[in-house]
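Q: What would this complex look like in 3D?
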Amino acid sequence: MSRLLVCPPDYFGIEYEINPWMQLSNRVDHERAVRQWHALMRVFEHDLGIALERMTPIPGLPDLVFTANAGIVVGRTAVVSRFRYPERQGEEAHFAQWFRSHDYDVMRIDTDLCFEGAGDLLGFSDCWFGGYHPRSDIGVFPLLSERFHREIIPLELVDNRFYHLDTCFCPLSGGELLYFPAAFDAYGRQVIADRIPTAHRMAVPEKEAVKFACNAVCIGKHVVLPAGCVATQTWLLARGYEPHPVQLDEFMKSGGSAKCLTLALD
Amino acid sequence: MDHCEEQVWLHGHIIDSLVLAKVLDLIVMMGGTFDLSDVHIGRTKEEPSRVHIRIHTTSRTLLDNILKAIQPHGASIAREADCRTDAAPADGLLPDDFYATTHLPTQVRIDGRWVPVDRIEMDLAIVVDEQGSTAHALPMGDVRQGARIVVGREGVRVTPLPRPQERDVFGFMGSPVSTERPHGHAISDIAARMRRLREQRKQDHADSRVLLAGGPAIIHAGGREALTWLIEQGFIHLLFCGNALAAHDMEADLFGTSLGYGLTAGRAVPHGHEHHLRTINRIRAIGSIDAAVTSGVITQGIMAACVRHGVPMIMSGTIRDDGPLPGVITDSVNAQSAMRAMIPGVGLALLVASTLHAVATGNLLPATVPTVCVDINPSVPTKLTDRGSFQAVGLVMDAASFLTELARALGRTT
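A: Here is my prediction, written as structure tokens for the whole assembly.
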């Protein structure tokens, strides 16, 4: 991964409530949010040498900052999201336009199925996992599987706080996994156990899961994650990863953290 | 107690993800039962699986609750839709998205009713009549502007062949062609079926006609007498051939040769190569094969037997034909139509010693017609199967031996 799509938080704020984290009364400290976002970008650009593509922020689309939900990028094809809530549907055209103007083949899901991009589709090189129910519809995965010739294992998300797969499930570059087991039902937990050996899995404790420890960005042996997740960092260090904690609590007010703020382009 | 039922599809990576298990558990936990049908498990990790689930409940409310619970997991209700039709844009022209038939029994759904497609045959289109009450298969060339042609795949149902009831050679259709297989059992099974069809034909049963499509090797190899006997005994009811089989059969009657070879002496006779030309010329002078037989010019053989026993002959021409004989259809589209018109009522097809006529006839036959392809060259039955006539039983043997053995199994003593 050498490039990430990001969007500066010029218009970020809480203007509606579409997940349990969002409360209109819980005002975002805008200056603080901007500082946190730039600190995150510094880690990517200066510490990890990642190229960043910055989208132009749009007034009235406060969640455009969460570019993980733009869609997914596979090679030169971009599948643009189809959001569940009307509050975010206005973002689709801007994401599509950005991909088009950067010479991606833009694929739209030609049905009324919802799909919220890399928020609900992530995985390892040989197998992808698709989170469904709160935001994405399970029916979208066979379409993507057919298009990209990949196995996509659907996992139902059963805890409203973890409404996207990337809030509770983080595959790492060495085949390990950070996840919060209670976000899945018994079937999902079994599937994860079948695929990833116990020694390779970290069941993130709840107090770190609610800080979105799993909403981390793994680039090679570096893991950028929200600050305050000590047990997760310790586990990562023990497995040869270098954690890069970043304070992102202003974005947690909206139900997003490091991973939600980025989209892997290649 | 009420019985309610709904059919749903589940599609995707549903096995390893336990999505199928979850859906089935939900159905049972909520008080329903289920049957699985049409289970297709992906053969590779990447290939998705597909399962058709029939859900049964004792009340509509329970069924609705179950459907509501399983739909988020990808279960979609398998709604039956009517077939779609588009008007043919011009004579001989089909709409772009026309449905291309297989030779398996096929139905189309019109106004909620499943209607069988008549005259099914592979590689045709389906036309629905003006009233929407019947449907039949139609070759591209016969389409008339404005005809209602079935398009897409919705509302079209193809039924696989039922497992044959008889445990004879036709019960193992599609078995690989092999020169190693003994023929005796296959021939006695064919004979048994022909005996039964002859009885049924006497009682005017449907689909009791036996069709033989053959090439001139039948005459050259010495199968003429056996085939004549089969026709005279009422075992063959329809003959498809070309100019050559008819010409050499009558050459044998007039000159005792086949392509100039003395059939009894077994060697070329002087100027024998002219015999078939002189035969054709003589029949052309008479005007028809019928007249040649009824006037007593042709007295014995396959043509004589067909004329005397009222067995229809469809003779299709080819590029290399001499003459041709009167009655040979030289326009290939007309020949195909004439053959097609004779297919209804055929209950067994014997395709003997002719690649062209075997493949042409095979393509016209519905999969429900038991078919035997006999050729000395194994590539002919293989070719027929490759072209889609999977029901054909292949016998690799020479035409004369096959016909002689078959006639013997049916009671011929000489």
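A: To summarize the key features: Chain A touches chain B at residues 126-127, 132-133, 137-139, 141-142, 145-146, 149-156, 185, 187-188, 190-191, 194 (CB under 8 Å). Chain A has eight helices and 15 strands.
Q: Very helpful, thank you.
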